[in-house]
Input
Amino acid sequence: MMPGSSHFKNIVKDTNISSDEALRRFDINLENLCSCGLPAEEMESKVRELSKLSAWLQEAIEKGETMENLQSRASQLAKLAFDLGCCREEVEQLLTIYPKY
Output
């Protein structure tokens, strides 16, 4: 599991938001990350920000969104992760949705 991702996922689960709100937060965070970028030397920050985006997609799934509705956002997340220098395994981990227990 990526550093920081489990902590952020708990924060997401503790919020009582709709799938629309989770997707809105995903879109805002993706836009901010794409426009501001991250210096290459800030790997920890990169992992944390990408994990947040992944957590918002997971939250939307848990709130009833379908994978089909999230396909374009998942593709955007994958492209951004590759653009920021993530390897294939890291991108796959970002896009893995864990079942809610």
